[in-house]
Design goal:
Layout (H helix, E strand, L loop, with lengths): L3 E5 L4 H12 L6 E6 L7 E4 L2 E4 L1 E2 L10 E4 L3 H13 L3 E4 L28 E3 L3 H17 L1 E10 L5 H16 L24 E3 L2 E2 H14 L5 E8 L6 E9 L5 H9 L4 E3 L11 H4 L5 E8 L6 E8 L3 H22 L2
Parallel strand pairs: 1-2, 1-6, 2-5, 6-7, 7-8, 9-12, 14-15
Antiparallel strand pairs: 3-4, 9-13, 10-11, 13-16, 15-16
The structure holds NADP nicotinamide-adenine-dinucleotide phosphate (NAP).
NADP nicotinamide-adenine-dinucleotide phosphate (NAP) binds next to helix 1, helix 2, helix 4 and helix 8.
Length: about 350
Amino acid sequence: MIENIAVVGATGAVGSIVLELLEERNFPFKSIKFLASKRSAGKSLTFKGELHVIEELSPNAFQDIDLVIASTPDEVSLEFTPWAVERGAIVIDESGAHRMMEHVPLVVPEVNPEAIENHQGIIASPNCSTTQMVVAMKPIYDAVGISRVVVSTYQAPSGAGAAGEQELFDGTQSHMEGKSFDYQAFAHPIAFNLIPQIGSEKFEGYTSEEMKMVFETRKIFGDETIQICPTCVRVPVVNCHSESILLETKSALEVDAARELFRNFEGITLQDDLASQSYPMPIDANKKDDVFVGRLRKDISGPNGLAFWCVSDNLRKGAATNAVQIAELLVNRNATCGT
Ligand SMILES: NC(=O)c1ccc[n+]([C@@H]2O[C@H](COP(=O)([O-])OP(=O)(O)OC[C@H]3O[C@@H](n4cnc5c(N)ncnc54)[C@H](OP(=O)(O)O)[C@@H]3O)[C@@H](O)[C@H]2O)c1
């Protein structure tokens, strides 16, 4: 039974959206508590019209908790997760700490909901750029198979947390006033610039963010044969990640057929009418839960290629929505088991 829940990292960019979603989707619970760092402990936040005092993360905070939805830095997750699991809670972890651990399911409900069955107390939610891509891949993968993916991302500063988002505003303002700005969340100015590096170097010139897209995608599909060539770029768009995706399919797929597959897939909104200048853009995807797909084209450079553009709110489907959907899967599964 899931009755008592804790939101860890409730003050963060993702955590604050988790709160909005729990309220919006009327997520069922008996009690709820909000945890963050010592910096926030004792402050209050509003949830469902009531003030709640934020507690500091500690082992005892998880006493009698059944479900944890957590959005903290990796190292914080590694520290507190055993405290919660030892006390009988299931942890849905947004961080990268557990995603690639063999015993931890990495779940996107539209793609591999069945994977939650194998959890041993922790269920991981993928990196934001992976999540929207695998949702967009799923209908095509199921219909004709996918052998190769070439993807370039255009990632918003909100993907680097509340501090990243704030630095875009502050850096832009300083730039407009002709002042210098000391960026902490980024290695270079993000205002009026693009940064073709997210994360540190991981493998043969690819960054950690890029290799997450490779490893996580293969794990979610349970298919180690998918070849993926990613380039991840930070762009000065406040929120929502965009991706230019080229899929090489195992057998031929007409663009019209792909359009129908996207149109009929729950979780995807197709917006694909170049003649009327209709295609996904961050400004429209902001605060929405779907993955938006458009600019569908046949690859004119080779066989069996489908090119398209994909946009999603990284704080919602890329993080908070995915975690809350996993929580809903757990609740529904419990309800079914009980009948
Ligand atoms: N942003 C995205 O688009 C996105 C997408 C997918 C996954 N994620 C992952 O989600 C996680 C959270 O990201 P975010 O963007 O929400 O970051 P954020 O805005 O920096 O928020 C971090 C949260 O963690 C808490 N925290 C930090 N240190 C802590 C500590 N020592 N003890 C307890 N709580 C601590 C913070 O509490 P205080 O306010 O008290 O410091 C805050 O609530 C990260 O692992 C990130 O990789 C983010």
